[in-house]
């Protein structure tokens, strides 16, 4: 039994018991099966599929009619590179090493020994391709056979937003005479913001390639524009002209993403793969609005998820209430191909996937076993250290903010946005913000946040200090710690403890207290 | 002129003016010159050279008689991997990307585009070798021709503490018939603590290889043991039996390091290179005691530094008061070989060395220009986020603690030590600690710390809030910010600002205020 020191005894009995979710399988790889995985960039629920009646997404809508639509899917981490690493490894960011963004000075990479989906597939005789935004490293861990990404020297705007070019690359990949089954990963850069890096194209690059003077022309794109007055403002965004303007621009790029999906699904059909190919659509993290991306509130953590299987047509067009996570995608793909889940050692710790295949949900709505998801966050930009751990079940969510004494940081991209500047300026001048919280509360958070989603879907009332919820709090703390343990979380003792796990503590890792409250 | 936003105007006038310390040189590489660089691991001033009359270091003493002894040398960062990266690149950790430890889950690496000393030397026809502890990555950046390190599969205990084996590897390297000049880097693992990982060998691995039952035998080592009652307790360490016991153990391993230096200098002599070889000795960071390693107080930042040049015998045995930094080592070695300093672009920013060659100091004591050093720290273990920036001149030191609202963290290695446990237990039980500060003050630090070294060498009185020092504070703030700018510091706007440096701000990077004090 592990000894987590004084103050940790409540958790002792459950620690270092490895989760045993999966047995190693011994199937042979399926030979007539392929996977097409679409990942939107900061995409949310602004689609007809998720009951947004304004933003036009006919292609996602058509895909949904051949899919199970997950109504309660969540990202493992609300930050781009870490999320993509979780999608492609089945491991939370704190376990695969991708603690923050990959690009520029942020420079995070997964551990060299990580057995990622493309690596496993390659070893199993599956051809792998990636088109668009990649944003994970190192190359040796995330190696695809066919790669047209920003890390291959292509401008991210071209491979991620020029849907004609993306279609052409998809055509090239799908035209191959290589007889192996394949996985093709399409990383749209839409509907990511762009005011931060390419302001000439608008706040969301909604003008890029629209045919206006100086904007270039994406041949296959029929731009759809929206009236800021008609957009649907999510409850966690202030209803002001600035935010509405941003949302209208975002809708335009969501329409582009939607048309891109249509183009690529058409290529799949023309290549004759529609009836062999599992198609998935999701996003990396919440939308880039206040309380969204980089947060693990539901506004940053909930994700769209469509799973379309030609081998599981019985629930096409149905919705599922199963709580799914982006760490379920790797086991789903492996299950689809009949490939055993990886089981290995990393940094001297056993690694086993904690997600589960979504395929059974395509056959029937589960009655048990799909009621809890977890999430974790460490950094986004390298200067934004804000580790959080989350357990979310059908009713409650617990967030553990580990650097909560410092203010929650704002990223470069969001800071410069009209929406955030509007919040900042309204706050400064004492005007009504029309937001559901104050910037001060947004910056300074308690160490523990407990929300009752049944009564409070917007997560406005923290119940962590309410005695009536003491046992809920205690159970969820224990649960999140058990998950941290099962996923070899280096932050398992944070913030007030020091993890000792070598020498005398090699066999009984222990959280030792700093006694910071002296 | 850069605009660093509201509250930053005091610094505006000096920002984004690049330091122009060095002209690119056009010398041809010297062909009869070599370098031997010794790096101790957590080594401090417990040597006869630095007036410690107890710890026996005859070989360092002999080297000092052929050296200039720097009395005011400082590390660029008080953490192992970051410091080694600064030594081997001439760039502070925040500029080369090695923000924390390289090993295990910490997993920091320098940017792929960094032009390190071994890379530059290799391109200039210099043969490079490394024996012992390396602890930096990636391999492509820190590639040596000859490598016997923990990253090559050797046990760190063997290549870093077994001085007979280290001698044999040095012999192999020095016996090569390769006619190229060389740099040989010797990374001792002594006198690093070892109670954390290998407690069977004692707190500092002082028993490893001493011939006692089960301890093995290092043939060339004559162990020296010390009475805890006779050790000299530094002013920043509590004078208690526990700390004295640790210091006595540390002395034993310092003696082993000293004998290792003697063995390798003997190999150099036998190979006939003594009269061609620049020999340097320093350490990576302060000693692993309270207020030492991972701190940028002088107790963590001041370093031993010996520079022995056969071409500059005029000041052999002299002391220098020049303030030197470990980022001066790369320019010193390049200067010795007559190789131009690197000048390139990294993450779209110009990179130029900000250190300076120490060779002129070997000829005469400088009267100006060696009065200021800088240091920076981000993390040590990945869970220990505590960015600090420091400017230190002859009289004053300013420390900017950027995550000071959170407690300063204790690392796994030091936490478990007898010395720290003694402090913790004494604090808990209300006994006198015999320490010069409280644990509470150690954990919780103000954002700015200003010390007057003339009046207060132990840095006990923070003058940052003292109005009499307002202009000193203001000048030093400006100076440290200018240095952050010259070294492309991603933390230049931390903790309360967001750096915008692309899109509209590409040509005028700007710190934008979060207004966290709302």
Automatic annotation (TrEMBL), chains A, B:
GO terms for biological process: glycosaminoglycan catabolic process; heparan sulfate proteoglycan catabolic process. PANTHER family: N-ACETYLGLUCOSAMINE-6-SULFATASE FAMILY MEMBER (PTHR43108), N-SULPHOGLUCOSAMINE SULPHOHYDROLASE (PTHR43108:SF6). Residues 1-26 form the signal peptide. Gene3D superfamilies: Alkaline Phosphatase, subunit A. Its cofactor is Ca(2+). Keywords: Glycoprotein, Hydrolase, Signal. Residues 33-339 form the Sulfatase N-terminal domain. Pfam families: Sulfatase. GO terms for molecular function: N-sulfoglucosamine sulfohydrolase activity. It comes from Patiria miniata. InterPro entries: Alkaline_phosphatase_core_sf (IPR017850), Sulfatase_CS (IPR024607), Sulfatase_N (IPR000917). CDD domains: SGSH. Belongs to the sulfatase family. This is Sulfatase N-terminal domain-containing protein.
């Amino acid at each position: 039994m592990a000894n987590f020191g004084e103050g940790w005894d409540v958790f002792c009995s459950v620690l270092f018991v490895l989760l045993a979710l999966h047995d190693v399988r011994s199937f042979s790889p399926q030979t007539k099966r392929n996977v097409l995985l679409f990942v939107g960039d900061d995409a949310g629920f602004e689609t007809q599929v998720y009951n947004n009646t304004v933003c036009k997404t006919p292609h996602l809508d058509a895909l949904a009619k051949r899919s199970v639509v997950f109504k309660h899917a969540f990202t493992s981490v609300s930050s781009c590179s870490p999320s993509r690493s979780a999608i492609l490894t089945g491991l939370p960011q704190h376990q695969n090493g991708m603690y923050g963004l990959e690009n520029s000075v942020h420079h995070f990479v997964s551990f060299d020994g990580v057995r990622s989906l493309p690596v496993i597939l390659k070893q199993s005789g599956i051809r792998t391709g990636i088109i668009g935004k990649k944003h994970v490293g190192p190359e040796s861990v995330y190696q695809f056979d066919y790669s047209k990404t920003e890390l291959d020297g292509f401008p991210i705007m071209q491979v991620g937003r020029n849907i004609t070019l993306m279609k052409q690359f998809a055509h090239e990949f799908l035209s191959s005479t290589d007889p192996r089954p394949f996985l093709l990963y399409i990383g749209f850069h839409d509907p990511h913001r762009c005011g931060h890096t390419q302001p000439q194209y608008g706040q969301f690059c909604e003008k890029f390639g629209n045919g206006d003077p100086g904007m270039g022309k994406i041949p296959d794109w029929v731009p759809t524009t929206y009236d800021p007055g008609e957009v649907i403002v999510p409850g966690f965004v202030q209803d002001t002209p600035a935010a509405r303007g941003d949302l209208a621009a975002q809708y335009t790029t969501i329409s582009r993403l939607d048309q891109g999906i249509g183009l690529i699904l058409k290529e799949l059909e023309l290549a004759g793969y529609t009836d062999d190919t599992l198609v998935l659509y999701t996003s990396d993290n919440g939308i880039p609005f206040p309380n969204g991306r980089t947060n693990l509130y539901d506004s940053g953590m909930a994700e769209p998820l469509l799973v379309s299987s030609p081998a599981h047509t019985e629930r096409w067009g149905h919705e599922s209430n199963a709580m799914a996570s982006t760490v379920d995608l790797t086991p789903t793909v492996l299950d689809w191909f009949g490939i055993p889940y990886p089981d290995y050692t990393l940094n001297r710790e056993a690694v086993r996937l904690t997600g589960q295949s979504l395929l059974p949900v395509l056959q029937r709505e589960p009655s048990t076993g799909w009621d809890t998801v977890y999430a974790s966050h460490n950094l986004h930009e390298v200067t934004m250290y804000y580790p959080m751990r989350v357990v979310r079940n059908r009713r409650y969510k617990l967030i553990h903010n580990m650097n909560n004494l410092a203010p929650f940081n704002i990223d470069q991209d969001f800071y410069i946005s009209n929406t955030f500047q509007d919040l900042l300026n309204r706050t400064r001048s004492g005007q009504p913000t029309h937001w559901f919280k104050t910037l001060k509360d947004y910056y300074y958070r308690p160490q523990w946040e407990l929300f009752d989603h049944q009564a409070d879907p917007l997560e406005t009332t923290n119940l962590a200090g309410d005695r009536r919820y003491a046992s809920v709090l205690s159970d969820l703390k224990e649960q999140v710690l058990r998950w941290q343990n099962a996923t070899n979380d280096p932050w398992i003792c944070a913030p007030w403890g020091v993890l000792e796990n070598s020498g005398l503590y090699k066999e009984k890792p222990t959280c030792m207290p700093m006694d910071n409250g002296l």
